[in-house]
Structures are given as C-alpha cells and as structure tokens.
Amino acid sequence: MKCNSLEEVRSNIDRIDDQIIKLIAERTDYVKQASSFKKSEDGVKAPGRVEAVIKRVREKAEKYGANSDMVEVLYREMISRFVSMEMDVFKQSQ
User: Fold this and answer.
1) Using 50, 70 and 90 to split pLDDT, how confident is the model at 93?
2) 76 lies in a domain?
3) Does the residue 55 lie in any domain?
4) pTM beyond 0.90, yes or no
C-alpha cells in the first residue's frame, strides 16, 4: 500500500504493531499449554525444535520479502524468552 504522508505510514505501522502484539499474546497461551505436555526440562528447551522453527521462519521471511537475518535474531530472542517462561510454568507444575 502506497502512503501519502508520514502520518499514514505511522498509522499503518501502529496497526501492524497491534496485530503483532495480539499474536504474541496468543502464542504465549500456546507456549504455556505446551509445558503441560513436556516430561522434562530438556523437553522444554528442545534445541532441535528451536532450530526447526528458525529454519522455517527464515524460509518464510525469504518468501515474504523480509530480512531473514533480522527475522532469525527476533525469533531467537522471542524463543529464548518463551523457553524461560515455559520453564517457569513447567517447574511450577512439578
């Protein structure tokens, strides 16, 4: 979409940020649920799964024209935070 002003650009960025935050909240709920299916701390950390997700999001980034290196950095940080959160939930359930 071609914007005609900086205000229009910012409005669209704000709209997208709102969607991203809603999706992060939804992802958070699923991450918390996942901990109930894990049997160990190693299962929570799941390095193989992390690398599979990174591979998938890099491919999606390329497909959609996003910077795959930036997407990887963002996802690695997000996953790290989610794993920490999931570990807390997992330990509380033990």
Assistant:
1) confident
2) yes
3) yes
4) no
